[in-house]
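Work Package 3 committed the consortium to producing structural models of liganded targets before the mid-term review. Because experimental data for this complex are still outstanding, the team generated a predictive model from sequence and the ligand definition alone, so that downstream docking and mutagenesis planning could proceed in parallel. The input record is reproduced below exactly as it was submitted to the modelling pipeline, together with the SMILES string for zinc ion.
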Amino acid sequence: MSIKLKVLGGGLEVGRSGFLIDSGDKVILDYGIKLTPKGTEYPLLPNGKIDAAIISHAHLDHSGQLPHLFKDSRFLSYMTSPTLEIAKILWHDSLHIAGMEGIDASFSKQEIIRTERFTFAVNYKKDINITDNIKLQFSDAGHILGSAIVKLTVGDKILVYTGDFKEEETRLHSGADLSKIKKCDYLIIESTYGDRDHPPRKELEKRFVEDIQDVLDRGGIALISAFAVGRSQEIADILYEYRLDTDIYFDGMCQEAAITYIKNPNFLRKPKFLKKALERLIWVKNLKMRKAALKKPCVIITTSGMLQGGPVQFYLRELYNDKNSKLFLTGYQVKDTPGRILLDSGKINIDGIMVEPKIGYEKYDFSAHAGRKELLSIINRLDPEKVILVHGDSEVIEKFGKDLEEDGFETYNPNIGEEIIL
Ligand SMILES: [Zn+2]
Ligand SMILES: [Zn+2]
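The resulting structure, written out as tokens with the ligand in place, is given here.
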């Protein structure tokens, strides 16, 4: 049986992940979007009739465009139940934003309802026959709530798609569980950090909280920009452990995501601790509360994580000239996002003008992705016949691919639209 992989998106880039596995049966692995300052970029449309879609986790770069496929199709999609819960929040939010900006959304409420109706929730470590010839099994990916590593058994071949994963334990998750995956024939692996390792988590957390304390001590506001799903909750968890003696505001879509986290304790490492951490925060409900937060030194955890939208923009407009305050970026900054532009050029767009802000800023590497050592370790353990590198900046993927070739792995770095015969 020949198996073809077509890259619909997420080749030599971070964003709009989408892959088509065609073995006669056609299966989609992830179908996300990419948010850029110029607008939203979508994955290619798959040709022909789809038999199934699998979503590794809820982040929009993996799930964001799935409802579009349900305009007139009737196949089933598979994901964990927390993934569906969070994705639904994000899909509705995408519609809401499109409405506010007067942009045509690529799907409507109707398609979200259809997507939900045709979605089958799958638990970790359970085999599911998704077509006559293809079996699916999820393992915990340790990335965000409900995130999964995908194992497909296609005839006598095993294909593993990592989605986004982290094997190292974090505050909220126990790390990817690869106990049910011993070896595979083909490995499609994220390469976000193919060029570097992350600093030790515990030291990073301590330095982060000390830095926040310094900001408070000099009378400033610690503005923490964090991803709505995962990172915001993790930051709350850290601040609770250190018992910072100040008001901590929690603003944006991180609130809805947090409720989903609390509702799914079985998918968390220490659910009780996280619940207490979230209860200790001041949940911002309206503009009045937002303005009140700016009146005295405090901590604000808010979205979006790459400064592309969300309440962080309101706070930045008020604080960008305050040298006592500091902006904390807490995750990966995709190319061309305002967060990345700030780090690279020292400038930020305030009301349409690029300015050099007086507010301090710094990126803390709280990554939920595998670092280079972890990536190499999993590739060596699964010992695949072919490695396909995806979900990384082109320079990172090309360098990482060369290193793997030198180690004797047949490695591919496909671009969007490319097809590989496995
Ligand atoms: Zn992700
Ligand atoms: Zn991703």
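Reviewers should note the following from the model. Residues 4-196+368-421 form a domain with the Metallo-beta-lactamase; Chain A fold (CATH 3.60.15.10). These observations will guide the Year 2 experiments.
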